[in-house]
Amino acid sequence: MNGLVMLLISAAILLAAYLVYGRYLAKKWGIDPAKKTPALEFEDGIDYVPTKPSVVFGHEFASIAGAGPINGPIQAAMFGWLPVLLWILIGGVFIGAVQDFAALYASVKTKGKTIGVIIENYIGKTGKRLFLAFVWLFSILVVAAFADIVSGTFMGFNSEGVKINANASVATTSILFIAAAVALGFFIRRTSPSGPVSGALAVMLLVVCVVAGLYFPVFVPKTVWLYIVFAYVFVASVTPVWALLQPRDYLNAFLLVAMISSAFIGVLFTAPVINIPAFVGFKVGSNSLFPILFVTVACGAVSGFHSLVASGTASKQISSEKHILPISFGAMLVECLLAVLALITVGAITISGKLPEGIVTPPQVFASAVAGFLTKLGLPENVVFTLITLSVSAFALTSLDSVARVGRLAFQELFTDSINEGKKPSPLIAALTNKYIATIATLVFGYLLAILGYQNIWPLFGSANQLLAAIALISCAVFLKRTKRKGSMLYIPMFFMLAVTFTALFLIITTMCGRISSGTFETSKHLLQFVFAILLLALGIIVAVQGIQKLTEKKAA
Fold this sequence. Notes:
The chain is mostly helical. Helices cover 74% and strands 1% of the residues. The chain has a two-stranded antiparallel sheet with strand order 1-2. Strand 1 and strand 2 form a beta hairpin.
């Protein structure tokens, strides 16, 4: 298979999906450009801020992308490129993009409230509490998986102690990138520069970061990087958004354009050959295509995390309902295209079923392949590799502190309802709702899982992520029914995702039980995975049952 043909066919399908199916959903549910959005109705300059659609789109995409659409398809390529490609396109259009659109639409129509509040309003307070517990557990898994990926991308030495210059350069560049984001945030806050001035400054800072990384690589072992990453996530998740999150998202927008453009141009002009088979089999080693393919591709086709981003931040910035479709449905389809590019890169870089020496993490696979493409066009490989890896790690770090913030808020909200209005909370409740303690509680468990390695965490993360998508779809379906809108197009996606995720979690649990009976269960390695799988399955079943009961009620409230 030729990578260029795969890319062009995928791009055409995704564009057609937006123009046909996306517009069909918008027409069925009803978009009213004349109606005041929550951003305009409740404008407060803090959370509810009317924002240009291009800026909201950039924020939405930077927040939802992370390393997921690169990591998932590259790992799932063990089944062959065809099943991965089909799931990215079919799942992305009919499940992933639909979920993103439904979540953002429901939130905008519910005064910019989160999915948790929507569940409370239409399913019940108990459902909301269980959902918050699920979100907290899910956040821990995301933190663990992405922290390990980032640390592996930065590690300065291989298993034999040999220095890895490319990784060390990326590490330096990434550290400077964070410092540049903070400096830019303070500069913008104090001087309010014009768009061209801030844009030129952003590009200049990126160039300085990349050049400094090439000349001053930092060689640090992976274990040390893991500590540094978690320290960074703690600080970033409790820091005011204007100081880091917003300026970093702004810089990320330039990286986003550079990364996707580089990959697209590289494939366009080199037309790489896909060196992996179209289909390997329904079972690869101990992994069965159903459900492992679906939970491994994860964010590349559908991600429950998107519903948290859409209802948590984007819904409070949209200035017109006509922007809901491109910001949600459109952003997900762009993520699908990125997933296709990731699939092409692993197919192009693989030789005789093996990756090149020293290429370990999926971001390294992606960056190495794109660098190889552009080297053929005359660009220096080390510069391109550093830039692309920086882009992926920057998105992963964005997802890390965003989801740590989500996990912290979910943990705090779990205990907020225990506080009686007008009364001072007990010392225990006051401690549990403290943002620093809530953040530490999230990150400690994340670290304990991260030391197991992302390969061991990813199936559990993928299962939780897809189950979160199923719960979001159920919640949106209940919302659509209660507000007299057509929601039947959500039924097949939500039941399919429930089948996939319940099966995946059940397999993880039975595997762990098998280890216990055979005496191969290692407490340090398997206990947390076992406990998380049981909790996620139990919480998922209870929330799903409550939602489906509301959905099947004959009379709407």
